[in-house]
Amino acid sequence: MASPHSILLTPIAKVGSKTLGSLYHLGNYSLLVARALVGAVVPPWRVRGILRQMEMVGVDSIFVVILTGLFTGGVFTLQVIYGFRMFQAESLVGPTVALGMCRELGPVLTALMVTGRVGSSMAAELGAMRVTEQIDALTVMAADPIKYLISPRIVAGLVMLPLLTAIADFTGILGGYVVAVAKGVDAGQFIARIQEHVAVMDIVNGLIKSAVFGVILSSVGCYKGFYTRGGAEGVGRATTSAVVISYVTILVSDFLMTAIMF
Amino acid sequence: MSAPTVTIKDLNKSFGQTQVLNGIDLVIQAARINFIIGQSGGGKSVLLKLLVGLLEPDRGEIWYGHQQMAGQPLKEWRRMRLKMALLFQEGALFDSMSVGENVAFPLWVHNRAGSALASQIARDRLKELELASAFDHRPSDLSAGERKRVALARALIMEPEILFFDEPTTGLDPLLSEQVDELILLTLERTGATVVVVSHDIPATLRLAHNVSMIFDGRIILSAPPDDFRRSGNPVIKQFLAGDADGPMGFLD
Q1: What SS3 class is residue B98?
Q2: Residue A69, min C-alpha distance to chain B (Å)
Q3: How far apart are the C-alpha atoms of A124 and A118, rounded to whole Å?
Q4: Structural domain spans, chain B
Q5: Interface predicted TM-score (ipTM) of this complex, two decimals
Q6: Do A133 and B106 touch (CB under 8 A)?
Q7: Is the pLDDT of residue B253 over 50?
Q8: Which of A191, A202, B137, B190 fits a 20 to 30 Å CA distance from A216?
Q9: Is B207 an interface residue toward A (CB < 8 Å)?
């Protein structure tokens, strides 16, 4: 029978163990990101590798981002029109949708969609390389696996997320415009109010957020894949874990950045 | 450094509570084929990973010629690794590249040749191993034996002074195993490198090796030419050579 001593201490020990484990991973992750960023800046630059990753992160995600933007803008407008009609404030639908897309929905939803698509694929690809010893092969060949594999992916996330977000913002506003006009909002008013109320910094801050999200989703996916253990099952766990951790980190960092920026 | 002698002194490695290597002392002879054998899970692959710096020992020394490498920083290991190559058990070819790109990769990543020249050298290497037609294929299109040959071409392209093989014939049929054995001989013939083969293929060991070292219980129990191995009265060695389930090596150890 467990002693009162161990009944009391075991949960505390478990919490302590989890905390230490999390701190270890946070430290390891920070070192990996630092090494990858240094690897991205210090020559030689593997431009072809970077471009390939940018194509995977950016170009291959355009369609899903357009759809996300369009329907998010549309549904947001539907909800907003309903509320604003109660106060005869329909003329403010345009800027509300635009501000919502540029400051918040565009960056966050784009990041979440791309995480599901690209972050998981980065974790899976690097995880598969790890369990088939391809990363060890790079190391034994005196190549730097972090510079070769991770730096291009983080650069791709950093550069392409703001571009994708800009596309999401535009298509979101477009989707909102179509729905608003279909619901009887004056088209000219819709555009004119946006120009009155949406500042350049609203767009820029949203793009800055998206750059941060790009680094988060790519670095977390790479970290989880790079340190995969345990064969195919490990790869599966790494992929799921990469997506969940990225989602949570993006949402938390969004809150913090919004509090600072706006 | 021409083909080096590798000297291992009191090498120890544990994982948690499990002591895998318990004071390995071994001399790997320069420009010779050295086999390291032992039962599965006995620490052969761990020893190999220590020798190429993928793991760090708890204690001990690894001398490559006059240079001690155990515990050295990454920068030193990178310099040493330019002189060595490792043929992984499954080849560890890069799935995202073609066969030609795989073979040319070491030249390209170390800026030893531009893309065109690296490709040409890779093509020549593959031709020597009768794989020229596989240049544009993906590794997944090849058979196990062909993947091993591609991995060997990639390993040899930087003209290493020391070449490690990790269980090269595991999982291969006798014909393919024979081919791989020939490749090991060819490697020594062509390069004069120090060759280290980690294996539990007894016929290949006794046929190819200039020196055989056996790991048991985390230690080297004998390091000798194959004939001395055959004649050894050590019950562990006799059991291993005979492939007998009964003996001092427990079946489910």
Answers
A1: coil
A2: 32
A3: 10
A4: 1-83+162-253, 94-159
A5: 0.91
A6: no
A7: no
A8: A202
A9: no
